[in-house]
Structure formats: structure tokens, C-alpha cells
Amino acid sequence: MAKRITLRSEDYSQWYLDVIAAADMAEHSPVKGCMVIKPHGYAIWEMMQKILDLKFKEIGVENAYFPLLIPQSFLSREAEHVEGFAPEVATVTHAGGKKLEEPLVIRPTSETIIYEVFSNWIHSYRDLPLLINQWANVVRWEMRTRLFLRTTEFLWQEGHTAHATHDDADAFARKMLDVYVDFAENTLAVPVIPGQKSDSERFAGALRTYCIEAMMQDGKALQFGTSHNLGQNFAEAFKVKFSDENNVEQFVWQTSWGVSTRMIGGLIMTHSDDQGLVLPPRIAAVQAVIIPLWFKDEEKATVIEKAQSLLAELTAAGVRAKVDLRDGRPGEKLFHWEKKGIPVRIEIGPKDIAAGEVVVARRDTSEKQRMAFVDVATQVAGLMETIQQNLFDRAAKHRADNTVVATNWDDFVAAIEAGKFVLAHWSGDALDEKKIKTETNATIRCIPFSEAPSEGTCVFSSKPSTQRVIFARNY
Amino acid sequence: MAKRITLRSEDYSQWYLDVIAAADMAEHSPVKGCMVIKPHGYAIWEMMQKILDLKFKEIGVENAYFPLLIPQSFLSREAEHVEGFAPEVATVTHAGGKKLEEPLVIRPTSETIIYEVFSNWIHSYRDLPLLINQWANVVRWEMRTRLFLRTTEFLWQEGHTAHATHDDADAFARKMLDVYVDFAENTLAVPVIPGQKSDSERFAGALRTYCIEAMMQDGKALQFGTSHNLGQNFAEAFKVKFSDENNVEQFVWQTSWGVSTRMIGGLIMTHSDDQGLVLPPRIAAVQAVIIPLWFKDEEKATVIEKAQSLLAELTAAGVRAKVDLRDGRPGEKLFHWEKKGIPVRIEIGPKDIAAGEVVVARRDTSEKQRMAFVDVATQVAGLMETIQQNLFDRAAKHRADNTVVATNWDDFVAAIEAGKFVLAHWSGDALDEKKIKTETNATIRCIPFSEAPSEGTCVFSSKPSTQRVIFARNY
């Protein structure tokens, strides 16, 4: 437990794992590639679920639940989809002591089973749009796994909608991407770049994939969420049809969109430091921890009593607070909550009580300040907004400082090697994209919506290009 | 959609399925034995989760997440456990395009994987009690399935705790049963009988299984939830040990406890009627629906405006309400919400507006009453409590009316045939229990805590007995 956290500058990958261990968030399980999400990690997922679920419901999306197991034949009905997912599925061949007539796969994603069901739910244009979401576990057999970022089983939400027209579906896919942008930036304090994937990075079976991409502290990109315009590809494969207002039968237009426990990995890598986890207040289940400190037994009752009264005041001020009632050495208790990333620690000892003050420590800046008892609730509530904003600003500055425009190949390679996001012209040629990846290990993270069309030539091939895209190495 | 609901008196099983279909709660999926939980059914599960989760957290239970897949060898470590579950597991033999070295089973329950992990988490008495819960899906290969009541995959929560002593563990198992009693009776309005299972109905691997049993409208019993005192059986199998205060190594004492989507089936069968679903207000995501009725287009704006203002008043009064803004024939709209079991329907048409009144219909009694606009919010809020209590009282009366004491075999058989709960003496002999089941299809539902010890003779074998137990046919 007292193991030192590796410094970011020493070994960023090991630092990431050390932060997770020190904060007691997750660990590898006895099942290869699967993780155990421990209470301090799961509490973050619960907050994510609560906030996102409310947003989905405001938009009119309803939750439902579909089977974990999918007949193998369903996967094959959409040609690109089976090609994308078949290599990584887990297959149930036996059940109830018998060999199954048709193997079942554990859902790697649920387009196929859900759209088979949708084909029975949708009859008329009056049934559209159909807006459904499910919170679920999925399994993708990954060779190289890493806690939260890439695990064989992960938790996610997958939204699935059906619309009467292409434009309605596309607008809805974009609207859900906006929900993700808002959530990433305003709740997780993670600045993201919304854009469109190149064809080679598109979801298997989609017409277009929209995504949000974030920069980690090592300059690598992490895909935070995706929203797909599926066109009519799955509708045709699963015969999802409706009668339009003229009583003409049409295939529906669909979208799917999802975020997963992977976001927790991105959250860790965006904000945490060499002392451990740093949580933005809006996603922290506990925003402020009050740590009563005593050195003699006869001091205990007084500091705990004062701590409890501060707890009541903080709760009344809308701060999610708790008191650390554990016995233990003061230094260990402070260290414990620092590693866990709680935004604010409030220390209160016998001398503080005598002075009518507490010591308030910010996790984001490590600054400490003294506050009079009467000011604590109001000031700590205010600090939550300050910390939230500071974390976002710090991450945005880091990204700005590490994003460059490259106009020639040498600059491009140097920038990628230096761990930057590189804005560069690309002609749209998939073969060039592949060669760039082979040579530099950088991929097109997205074609950003914010980037105005501009005339230029591909940084690699010099072919004419009308747009800059973002290249980076990625998780 | 307009299919008539079969009367309970005609065919109770078909009535149950018709109620689910009419309320649009769930349906069979393309995967044998698995169901699709539709939004109106899933909303009930979400309310159940929300209320139970809060209770768990108040007690100090923390949520975590463990893998879906369990190495087959884990299941075998506890002898009774493997015997109980091996016949109904689904097995993954291939993944990522390869045959696995060791097959993985999809969790039918998670004692084995969780306790393997607990063995690394627990070192000292200071780590105890460890109180963990997980919300998850599980798979048990069932031959005969029925929506909600018995499905191959179902959703549940499973709590897993470790304690320093037998008595602590037993008290905790009982405490969680009390949580379930409180939830069933005060939230779901379902009266339940708490008690202990006979050995033959015990959870595979447990020392003792506590349960709550409810009576459905056809007199059959439904097990609503269970809480197990696992003793040290799994601790020994998975080497879950701790150093006690004297630094002596000991095995922990464990509990596990769970409720599932099966409760939704029990909720339906307890309260619903020949018109469809009936939901108790506390579990209804929508407690009151305001139905604006208009017959001419020019009336629409006025009734909708008034409906919206009533909605605001109801919401302010703490009632979960919504307005039905759909076009459609008035009769169809009223029928729609009746079938869905919404506790109160508030009808408002042009004539009602002229009179300054609305028509309020109770779902539980079908009574309609007129209410002045100014009274609606307060009175409907009050009606919620009235309806909640009435549903509980009605179910309790039904159970009292259909519970008998049998002192001889002929009376026993007659009462079971008549669909009653039968309190009768039983000596504790498992073979007699089995014979009773063979002859009457009735099982011991539980040894109720409420039943004082009494001297008597077994209703079947005439062997001496010290207790009455509850026999019934069951789902």
C-alpha cells in the first residue's frame, strides 16, 4: 500500500497503473483481460451513469434491456460488421450440459440483436423516431489489455435509434455527440475535439462515425466516445421497415452511440499527478473529506464533534462531503485521501479548534489555506467551481501547447515523435493514411468540425487536399 | 395491440402474459429463454434499483463490479455449489478465434469469482466487515422460461459480505432480509413472509438460507428474495482468511443476498387486474398522467395549456406526473394508460375547463371523482398514499383469506388443491418433504420467523414436530 507512485517523467504507463492502485480503483481479475472495478472506481462510473442518463432522458431516450447472447448468424448479416467484430467475439458452444445447435456470441455491441427486435417494433412513420438506450456489459476479446482503457469485458451505454430520414438520423447522431462533448468538458473537465472519423477508422457497418478525442498528458490521443450515422446498412440487413405518410414501405435510418468505462482511464490520465488521482468535483462522489486529527485520546471527541458539525454545514451548502472517522496516524490519513483524488481535504485538529479555523487543502494545486469556521461551507462550495474550471483550463492549455500545424513531412514526423497533436493536410487517400501509420504510428484521430476547409497538399503524398485533419498516436 | 386481456378466472397464466403485452413491458427475444425488457418494464427495474441502492448505501454497502466470466474450475471448489449450478451454466469454449485452454462459464451467481478476489483484499480483522454489492446480469440455462419469473438471463443485485464471526454474519444476513421485507411491503405493497428455507431448498453452498415469500392472486407462492448465511464454506474453498486481534489466522464468515427482475413478475401478479397492469405509486416512474381530451381542433390549445399548468402543480407537490400530448381518440388514450397501470389518470376536456374541474380516475379501484382545479395537486398527492395502502391491504387480505392451518393429511391435500398457503407441522425429515412434494406438488416455502415453536405431529408422517411451516405450490 505504501508503494511509491512512479513519476510521470520516469514511466508514464507505470505511473497510470500506480495511480489506479494507490487510489484503489481497479485491479486485474483472475480472468485474463477482465478487471475488477473496486468501490472507488465504480463510484465514478455510477456518477457518470447518473449524469448521462438524465441527459438522455431529457432528450426523450428511453432505457431498455436486450439479451447478452446473440445468435452467431445475426452477426454475419451485415458484411462489414461481421468482418469488424467476428475476430474478437467470445462464443458459447455449450449450455445446460448440452452442445448448442447454433453457437451464441457474447455481445461485443448490440446492433444486430436490437435491430432484429426493432424490425418488430416499427411499422409506421408514427413509430419514429424510436430512441432507445441500454446500460450493459460487453465482451471483446482483446490481446493486450490495460485497466479501464482496454479490457476484455467493459461496461458501457449503447444508444440505438431509428428515424424516417437520413437527415433526421444524422442530426440525431450529431446531437448525441454534442451531449458527449458537454459531458466530457463540463462534467469531466476534459477538453475534447469533436469530428468525423476517416473511413478506415469508421465503426464496422456505419455510414459515418463521429467522435470526440482528448489529449492525455503524454500527448497521446484517447477516443472518448463515438456516435454513428448507420445509414440504412443495418435496416437492410435486418429488414427494419416502416410505412411512410404515403403508405410506401421504406427502410429506417439509424444511429448508435456509446461511451464506456474507458472514460475513467481518460479521466485519470488527464488530471492526475505524481501524488495520485485528481478528480474534478462534478464527477467526485465525495467532493470534500473532513479529516479530524488528534494526538491524544482525550482530544478525539472534540475534533470529531466539530467535524460532524462542519459536515452538516457542507451538506447543506450542496457539497458532497464525508468525515474520516478512522483511527490512524494523521499523516497517513491525509495521504490516503490525497491519493484518492478528493478535490478538497479539510483538516481539523485541537489547535485549529482553539483558533476557530480549519486547514483546507486543494487537490488540484496542493495549495493550503486557513478558513474560519463560519466561512467553510460557503468557501468550499465556491472552491468546487474554481477547481472544476482550473482542471479544465489546465488540460486545455496542455492541449494547446502540444498541438502544432505541420506543413511538411519532416516537421510532421518530428512533431509526432515529440508526442504532439498534429494538424496537417490529407487528401482523403486511405493508402496514404495507412503508410503514415506504418511510418510514424500516428493515425487520423478525426477530421475536426472546427477546422474550416482550406486548400493545401497532403503532408505525406503532396496530393491536393481540401482539409486539415488531426494526427496523433493514440491509446 | 387491441387484443383483449384474458380474464384471470379463465386462464391465470395467459392473463399474466396478456398483462405484460398490453402494458408493453417485455417480450420474448430471438434468443431462446432470454427476454427483451421494454421501456415500461425497465422503468420499474430502474425504480427498484434506485430505492434499494440507497438502502444498501445507508447500511454501508459499497458497489463494485466483477467479471461476467468465471473459470470453470472455480465453480468446482465448493462441492455443493458446483452440484447446484453446474447443470445450468452456459460455457464459453472459444474466444478471439481460438479454443480456450480452460473453458469459462457465464456467471450464474458470483460467489466463486468474488471470494477468490476477497482472499486478496482481506488480511486483518481491520478489513472486516467487508460489505460489497454488484448490479449485474447472470445466466442460468432454464428449460422452461416465463417472462420476468424465470428467464435464462436476468438482472439482479448480489451482495457479498465477509465478517469476523458467525454471529456477525448471521445478523447481517438477517438485516438484509429485513431490508427486502421493508422494500417488498412498503415500496412494492407486496406482503411477504420472512423465514428460513428447509435444507433441501437451501442455496447450494450455504449454511442457512433466509427468504421472503409472497402469495400471488392464484394462491401460488413466489420467492421474492433470499439472504444466505454462507458460514465458512466458501471461505475454506477460496482461502479467505484474516488475522484476528490475537494475530491468529481465521477463515471469514460470509453472507450473500439478492433480488432480481423476477420481483417485477411478482409485482404484476400481486396487484394487476382484468384491465391490465396495476402499479403501486411508490414504484411507478409515472404516478399520474394528465390526459387532455379534445374533439375539435380549436379546443386542443386550451386543454393542453391547462394540462401543462396542472403538471407544474403536481410536480411541485412531489407527484411524478406527465401529460399525454399524443393525438388520438380520447377513449384509446384513456385505455392506453389504464393498461399501463398508472396509479392515477386525470382527464381534462373542454367541458371540464368550463366547470373548473377535472375527472380523476384511480387505477386500483377504477373509481372516478371530480376535483376542482385548486384541489388537484394536494388531493392527488394524498391519493398516492391511499392507493399504496389500499394495494397492500388488499393483497394482505387475499393472503389471510387463503391461508389455512391443516392438522391432518386430507385437509392438507384439499387446501393445497384449492390453492391455499397451508401452515402445518413437519418433523424436519427431508424424505417426508420430498414425498409431500411428489404427492401434492407443494413445497415448504419457509419456516416462518413469526411462527412460535409448538408441539405437534407431522401432517404427513405423524412424526413428532416442534414447528409449523408453510407449504404451497410455487412459481
Provide an overview of this structure.
The structure is a homodimer of 475-residue chains. Chain A has 475 residues and is α+β, with helices and mostly antiparallel strands. Chain A has three domains: 12-271, Bira Bifunctional Protein, Domain 2 (BirA Bifunctional Protein, domain 2), CATH 3.30.930.10; 286-383, 3-Layer(aba) Sandwich (Rossmann fold), CATH 3.40.50; 403-472, 2-Layer Sandwich (Translation Initiation Factor IF3), CATH 3.30.110. Helix content of chain A is 37%, strand content 28%. The first copy, chain A, has helices spanning 12-23, 39-59, 72-75, 79-85, 111-121, 166-187, 233-238, 262-271, 297-316, 330-339, 350-355, 376-401, 409-417, 430-440; strands at residues 26-28, 35-37, 62-63, 69-71, 90-95, 98-106, 130-139, 153-163, 193-196, 208-215, 221-231, 241-243, 249-251, 253-260, 288-292, 321-323, 344-348, 357-362, 368-372, 403-405, 421-425, 443-448, 456-457, 464-465, 468-472. Chain A has an eleven-stranded mixed β-sheet with strand order 3-7-8-14-11-10-9-22-25-21-20, with helices on both faces. In chain A, helix 9 (297-316) packs across helix 12 (376-401). Chain A is globular and about 80 Å long. Chains A and B meet through strand 2, helix 2, strand 3, strand 4 and strand 5 of A and strand 2, helix 2, strand 3, strand 4 and strand 5 of B. Strand 5 (90-95) of chain A pairs antiparallel with strand 5 (90-95) of chain B, so a sheet runs across the interface.
Please, how many domains of chain A?
3
* Category from helices, strands and their pairing of chain A: alpha+beta
State the share of residues found in helices of chain A, binned by percent.
25-40%
Which ranges of chain A are low-confidence, i.e. pLDDT below 50, for 5 or more consecutive residues? Answer: none
User: Any idea what the shape of chain A is?
Assistant: globular
The count of β-strands of chain A is 25
Most residues in contact: chain pair: A-B, 51 and 51 residues
Strand arrangement within the widest β-sheet of chain A reads 3-7-8-14-11-10-9-22-25-21-20
CATH architecture descriptor of the largest domain in chain A: 2-Layer Sandwich
Quaternary state of this entry equals homodimer
Return the CATH topology of the largest domain in chain A: BirA Bifunctional Protein, domain 2
Total DSSP helices of chain A: 14
CATH class of the largest domain in chain A: Alpha Beta
Largest sheet of chain A: 11 strands, mixed
Beta-strand residue fraction of chain A: 25-35%
Query: What is the arithmetic mean of pLDDT of chain A?
Result: 96
Rg calc of chain A: 25 Å
The CATH homologous superfamily of the largest domain in chain A corresponds to Bira Bifunctional Protein, Domain 2
